[in-house]
Amino acid sequence: MSNTPSNMLPLGTTAPNFNLIDTVSGKMIALNDVKGDVATVVMFICNHCPFVKHVNEQLVKLANDYMDKGIGFVAISSNDVKNYPQDSPELMKKNAEQLGYPFPYLYDETQEVAKAYDAACTPDFYIFDKDLKLVYRGQLDDSRPGNDKPITGRDIRNALDALLSGKEVDPNQIPSMGCNIKWKH
After folding, report:
1. Residue 173 in domain
2. pLDDT means over runs of 10, the chain (185 residues)
3. pTM of the predicted model, to two decimals?
4. For residues 93 and 147, what is the distance between their CA atoms, to the nearest angstrom?
5. CA torsion 103→46→42→169, rounded to 10°?
6. 68 vs 10, 48, 88, 96, CA distance in Å?
7. CATH number at residue 59
8. CB atoms within 10 A of CB 133
9. Residue in 108, 111, 135, 140 with CA at minimum distance from that of residue 29
């Protein structure tokens, strides 16, 4: 389990577009298909990472708490499935269904989307405003496997609440931490 931090894409960056297969529905999903009226949360996750497993329940709760408020959510897995077969699209679908993901779980086979977002770890989180400008990138909260801190989603919730109330998102943001994305060689 490697401790890889987010690369912290510059605030104000426009969300890179994507068009990827949703492992649950089998449909192609583009950024505009998941874009929220207020904001859009893009999450790089995978099945096998202990950091993602640690927060999965909170990810479902977070999406369920905010999706009806104009916040779009999408999860993307970009891991090399040849070397990490537990992250295959078939198992992504099974995982999403078992956990009750209310958001699409997309497979980035070429890893081009992860590169466009400068994603480094799982989980890696990005929040874009209604104009698809980056206003938050960083951790869900300060809970990590084994540190006994409660999983609250506080950092992302604070950013989303600021956007919902028309306030500026605090630019002092802490990188996410997790397993490195499993790049193809």
Report:
1. yes
2. 84 98 98 98 97 96 98 98 96 97 98 97 97 97 94 97 97 95 93
3. 0.97
4. 30
5. 120
6. 28, 29, 30, 20
7. 3.40.30.10
8. 12
9. 108
Instruction: With respect to residue 185, please indicate whether it lies within any of the assigned structural domains.
Output: no
- Give me the helix-helix angle, 154-164 and 50-66, nearest 10°: 30
Residue-by-residue DSSP string for 72-122: EEEEEE---TTT-GGGSHHHHHHHHHHHT-SS-EEE-TTSHHHHHHT--EE
The number of helix segments (H) and strand segments (E) in the chain equals 5, 10
The total number of structural domains that make up the chain: 1
Q: Residue 1 has what pLDDT?
A: 52
* Per-residue model confidence (pLDDT) at position 82: 95
**Which residue in 18, 25, 19, 20 sits closest to 102, CA to CA?**
25
Beta strands in the chain (DSSP E): 4-5, 19-22, 28-30, 39-44, 71-77, 105-107, 121-122, 124-129, 134-138, 177-180
Instruction: Name the residue range of residue 112's domain.
Output: 4-180
